[in-house]
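Re: Re: ligand-bound prediction request (bumping)

Still looking for help on this. To restate: I need the protein modeled with uracil bound, output as structure tokens. Inputs repeated here so nobody has to scroll up.
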Amino acid sequence: MPRLEKLVAAASPHSRRAAAGLIKSGRVAVDGKTVTAPDYPCAQTAFITLDGAPLLLGPRYIMLNKPKGTICATKDDNGKTVLELIAEPLRKNLFPAGRLDKDSEGFVLLTDDGPFAHRLLSPRSRIPKTYLATLDRPPDKDILAELFCSPIDLGGGDITSPALLENVDGVTARLTIYEGMFHQVKRMFLKAGYKVEGLRRIRIGALELDPGLGPGEYRPILPGEMPLLIRQD
Ligand code: URA
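Reply:
Sorry for the wait, this slipped through. Here it is.
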């Protein structure tokens, strides 16, 4: 069984040495009982608290409503990253699974689960991502739908797989794509003669961005929502 200090460090912003100090000073409890030995053998399934607050072990999955102007990276010298929107204790080891451009907004998944992120992002998984694109003028839905349902050569070796233009409402088009090439949505519309003036991701897999989340707000993905994230239809 792992040592308690290792589990506390894994589930908190603290280093292993700092976790050992917290345990020694009596601030950590395991299944309701204070434990002061950092090397206490502790089950992964134990209920660990720090100052009475539960420490969550295991991978984390967070739905963020990215505001315009933030950068989808863990670190950037030139601007605010999406990670900086997340409260410090939750931030450790998180990274954005996929990117939205700085001027795009909407659903970003933050996780510390590398294999899951890989599965979500791999073009072979064909996980749909749905966007609302605001265009420079009202498009002709039928022409666009026909264009997008065939592969489009975006240049630089990027060829799209068939995408779904589902709806057009004035200058706003709802488009679902099945991979995530650089600036893919903007380049697809540009190829069709339209400039994207605003872009919002509203859905990953079959999971909608929670309408209760304002720009910059986030919440954990609920266990029942996990299968929706990787649903292919
Ligand atoms: N496609 C784009 O062009 N930009 C994004 O941010 C996401 C998809």
